[in-house]
Amino acid sequence: MKSLHASIVASLFCAAGSTSAQNPVLYFEDFESGDGGYTLISPGLDTWEYAVPVGGPGAAHSGSFCWGTTLDGVLADSGSIQSPPIDVSAAAGDSGLVVSWWQFIDDLPGYRLSVYVTSGANDQNLFGRWYPVDADEPVGTGWHRMRAFVGAEFTEAPFQILFHAAGGYAIDDVMIERARLVPVEVEDFESGPGGFDAEQVWAVGKSDNCPWGTYDPPSGENHWGTALPGCGYPPFASNVDLLSRPVDLTPYQNRHEVYLHWMRSVYFEGADGGLHAMSFDDGATWVDFGGRHWGADGSFFGTFVGYGIPLDPAVADDVILRFRLESDSIESEYGMWIDDFTVSVPEDIPGSGANAPGSLRRASGAFELGAVVGLEIDDPADSFPTGSVGLVLSSLQPDAQLPAGTSIPGWSLSSPGAAGDLLVGVAPLAALFVGSAWSPSQPSEVALAIPNSGSLIGVELYLQGLLVDPSGPFTRFGATTGLFEKIAN
Predict the structure, then answer these.
(1) For the domain 31-179, what is the CATH code?
(2) Element (H, E) at 311
(3) Residue 124's closest CA among 310, 271, 278, 262?
(4) Is 374 helix (H, G, I), strand (E, B) or coil?
(5) How does DSSP assign 182-195, residue by residue?
């Protein structure tokens, strides 16, 4: 088979031209070369420090250095650090950004945590904790990776991330990625509740006479909100829930991610906030995904901005989201308004439609450092002979002719003699993986081992399969659809 593989690679080089590299990672900071330019918001206070941990987590998530409030073993005062301005203009025209970071929380009485981002006039809370209000929400031990989606409006100006902590907290490996999504389902609530369910003051309606002035929802007139119609506030000391409809994840389980995102406007005074959770068992149990959304001085987004979460669709058949608002007994200045609830998937590589849908799928594993990913190549029409061999082409570049791809005569998977689309860049290929023999009852299985190397974090991979039948007088190739993947840490 070695000579066959060599001839395939040679033919691929002839078939497609070179392409420009694409890199979805706009920013990555592991703090190994310095403090990353992060600065204290309140200079002079002994709050955050950049160091090799002795206390707190005891070690950075990666390498030796990180930022934290208890790295020397002593709990500091309340304070915040802020990243330098980050240029995210390369994401203009994309769906938005994915912000991720690794965090360690010391479960200490009295702690308050908040992570939020700013871009021009736009602000968005990504994560928060407040003890003892959130004491019944599990914090966990060790380092945990957090990921959140923010909308396209955050690509319009220099971007900054702020971490606020009154308690033990540490961060490491902060990353910003481009999010290029294709909407699959959109609910704008113009025709009603959209399958959502709520209690007390949540309702579908129109916001009028808001105390900060009027503003337009992202689409139509109606949306979910508290104290609708109108723009009032819920009563004192109230906890009210809005539950999304169950989102069916099974159509997306051949993908590495599915995104649930929505447009949101909120107003919280400093002691109120919103908790976000998800359930994979029809509401029997809940898992926090965003913590308490609040700010040290309250949170106020006068216009709707995008927020959401990426999920691995393989974790369950469906998911329900819970939006909970909490108010203290002193003031009732709070509210949340939600519109355009959207289910999206990352851009895949379908080509012109000539390649059979579902012919390349991720069967197991995740594209993470040190992992082994199982892919399957199949011919839905069973037109290839038993014993054909599967190959997976892995490239750092897409084909130059995407979204259609380069049409190659005779490369159809299911229709012998017809053309198929080449979808990945082959000058040069990153790797060529050989799979098992194919039969009508057994897809060709291909294993991709991802090295445990930090330099691969955020690397973008374009993958396409070939089913190869060398048994006839002429070698026959059948091209699959493609996959677009990003390596996570």
Answers:
(1) 2.60.120.200
(2) strand 305-311
(3) 262
(4) strand
(5) EEEEEE--TTS-TT
pLDDT higher than threshold 50 for residue 19: no
Structure tokens at 75: 């709990």
Domain locations in the chain as residue ranges: 2-23+348-486, 31-179, 181-346
- Tell me how far the alpha carbon of residue 85 is from its chain's centroid: 22
- Asked whether 337 and 455 are in contact (CB, 8 A), the reply is no
What burial letters (b/e) apply to 266-285, b meaning 16+ CB within 10 Å? bbbbebbbbbbbbbbeeeee
What is the average pLDDT value for the chain, to the nearest integer? 81
Helix/strand number for the chain, H first, E second: 1, 33
Q: Which pair of structure tokens corresponds to residue 116? A: 């939020």
Averaged pLDDT, 296-305: 60
Q: For residue 452, what is the DSSP state?
A: -
Q: Which among 183, 184, 192 has a CA at the least distance from the CA of 221?
A: 192
* Closest listed residue to residue 458, CA positions, set 14, 7, 22: 22
pLDDT tens digits along 86-126: 999 988 888 999 999 999 987 666 677 788 888 877 777 78
Residue 258 CA to residue 179 CA, distance in Å, equals 11
Residue 61 burial (CB < 10 Å; 0-12/13-18/19+)? buried
Paired sense of beta strands 247-248 and 318-326, if any: antiparallel
pTM for the complete prediction? 0.73
d(CA 447, CA 391) in angstroms, rounded, equals: 10
pLDDT at 421 over 90: yes
- Cα–Cα dist 133/136, whole Å: 8
Q: Kindly state the tokens that stand for 99.
A: 């912000």
Structure tokens at 107: 């479960």
- How far is the C-alpha of 447 from the C-alpha of 436, rounded, in Å? 9
Q: Collect all residues with Cβ–Cβ distance below 8 Å to 3 and sequence separation of at least 6.
A: none
Amino acid at 309: I
The side-by-side arrangement of strands in the sheet containing 476-486 is: 431-437, 389-395, 460-469, 476-486
Which tokens in the block code for residue 391? 């190959």
Contacts of 108 (CB under 8 A, 6+ apart): 75, 131, 167, 168
| 192-234: pLDDT as tens digits | 999 999 877 788 888 766 655 445 778 888 999 876 666 656 6
CATH of domain 181-346: 2.60.120.260
Q: Phi/psi at 377 (nearest 5 deg)? A: -110, 130
Read off the pLDDT band of 52 (50, 70, 90).
very high
